[in-house]
Amino acid sequence: MLTDRRKFLKSTAALLAISSWSAANRGNQPFFGLPEINYQQQPLPFSYGALEPAIDAMTMEIHYSKHAAGYTKNLNDACLAEKVNTQVLPLVTLLSAISGYSEKMRNNAGGHYNHEFFWQSLHSPQPAVAHQPTGPLAAAIENKFSSFDQFKLQFAEVAKSRFGSGWAWLIKAKDGSLQIGSTPNQDNPLMNISSLQGTPLLGLDVWEHAYYLRYQNRRADYITAWWTLVNWPIVEQRYQQ
Ligand code: MN
After folding, report:
1. Residue 63 contacts residue 110 (beta carbons within 8 Å)
2. What is the mean pLDDT of residues 106-130?
3. Could you state, in order of their start, the residue ranges of all structural domains in the chain?
4. 100 Cα to the center of ligand 1, angstroms
5. Which of 10, 123, 140, 168 has a CB 3.0–4.6 Å from the CB of 231, allowing a cystine?
6. CATH 3.55.40.20: does it fit domain 135-240?
């Protein structure tokens, strides 16, 4: 009986240790003021047609239900094969140690994270929606890039010149400064193998699957239209986190 009680106490202590370790580590991770991005695809925060005319409904449907869903499925397959406990290990922690995993894990963990982040960064281009940031983020952008228009020009240039498939980012670097950069394929600035390192504030998918149906080869036009969809209040929250 005593032994059983000891065993029980021991296993309870172990569970508590694990959960407090997990809580402490999660506490140290940047979650950008958003619902935590885990290993499951969340429902889109808007309908497929809500971003018309900048992004058409069919592109959104295929992008979300085929491309992004595929990354999520393949990420979970890779986690099973590589014994990642998705209940315990936060996705951002996996990304920060991605060099220790397979190419499949890298592509799909990035693909899943980037798309969940991307959907959360967009909203319907209602006339009432502000098309630029306010508050501390607006001040930081003006300080770093001289004006919001200059920032947009630089960001668009980086997005246009990313060769092949990838993402353009606005990030908050470790020293707190803003930086614009891009990553190839489904890499992102949270990955320890990335040359661009920092907390993502805003990301733009420049894979052809994100725009080809409406824009064909005109990536620049897609970028111009995408500015009307940016959910600046979310980006501001991420900056102030
Ligand atoms: Mn995509």
Report:
1. no
2. 92
3. 135-240
4. 24
5. 123
6. yes
